[in-house]
Sequence to fold (247 residues):
Amino acid sequence: MRKKYICGNWKMNKTSSDALEFAKKINDFDFEKVDVLIAPSFVCLESFRKNLKNEIIVAGQNVSEFDDGAYTGEVSTSMLKDISVNDVIIGHSERREKFFESDEIVNSKVKKALEDGLSVILCLGESLEKKEENKAVEFVREELLKSLDGVKNLDKVTIAYEPIWAIGTGKTCSSEDAENMCKEIRNIIDEKYGEISQQIRILYGGSVKPANAGEILSKENIDGVLVGGASLKAEDFIEIIKAGENL
Ligand code: 13P
Fold:
């Protein structure tokens, strides 16, 4: 049985003080059946992790593919590990689109993070254009295989399917379409990696809210959610965790 995974991606929101307010609220909420992760901005990571209960995983939203050196503005795997942050989101569509991260760069980051012992949430998803051309599956297949090129072991990998047209738009992919794509992703992983396809967690992300989380999470091949906007309010995020607890 794959344990459901409820993940929040705060993107460029919340100061360290905001994050501490959030921690106070969520620390009082107990859950047991799901795993929970929150990815705040880099500057909040250490204080947030220290003030958050241990049951909640704290992750980076990005990491450099390089060890160290002259890379102004970048954060390395060793910097994350040094503050006990062992999880990272890689390849979010906003990184790919707004910061020009190609599949090759994403692949280097995934390999670097895994080599250095971090767990990775790898994001994938088609644009509206690809969807309208009926090329979503083809696109996601290529993005998945290129992003994982040379990666031999998926033990520490989670996949997040986030159709770009559903991110921050209020347009949710129907739970059936999300389930179908997550199933396709599992089949592609099965072809390439075999048995691990039954253990790897595949999440859905894109306008997940308290109102639709239960239905999305009830699908067989959707093992969790990656939540943007609705993860910013502790009350809403707690409702989404409850949706996972109550399945
Ligand atoms: P929204 O939930 O705001 O649509 O964002 C989804 C997302 O990009 C999570 O990584």
